[in-house]
Design a protein that fits this description.
This protein is α+β, with helices and mostly antiparallel strands and 69 residues long. It has one domain. 36% of the residues lie in helices and 33% in strands. It has 1 helix and 5 strands. It has one helix at residues 44-68; strands spanning 2-5, 11-14, 19-24, 28-32, 37-40. The strands form 2 sheets. It has a 3-stranded antiparallel β-sheet with strand order 3-4-5, with no helix packed on it. Strand 4 and strand 5 (37-40) form a beta hairpin. The two termini are 26 Å apart.
Length: 69
C-alpha cells in the first residue's frame, strides 16, 4: 500500500495495483481500474517513486523468503 493525500487533506492508503493512470492536469489525478478518480496533493514523480518502493518491498520480501527455503 502507498499513502496518498487527497485534495481535502485527508490521508489514505491506496493499493497501487489498482492504479490505471496518473495525470498532471495541473492537479494530480489518479484513475483507478474501477473508474474512480482521485485528486491528490502528491506530484506524479512522487507517486511513481512510491510505486517503485512498493514493488521493491514486495520483490525483496519474496526474494528473502525464497533464500530461506
Amino acid at each position: 500500500m502507498i499513502r496518498i493525500t487527497k485534495f481535502d487533506g485527508s490521508s489514505v492508503m491506496l493499493n497501487p495495483e489498482q492504479i490505471q493512470t496518473i495525470e498532471a492536469t495541473p492537479d494530480t489525478v489518479i484513475t483507478l481500474t474501477t473508474g474512480l478518480q482521485l485528486i491528490v496533493r502528491e506530484r506524479v514523480d512522487e507517486l511513481v517513486a512510491a510505486f517503485k518502493d512498493y514493488k521493491k518491498s514486495i520483490f525483496h520480501t519474496s526474494w528473502e523468503a525464497r533464500k530461506q527455503s
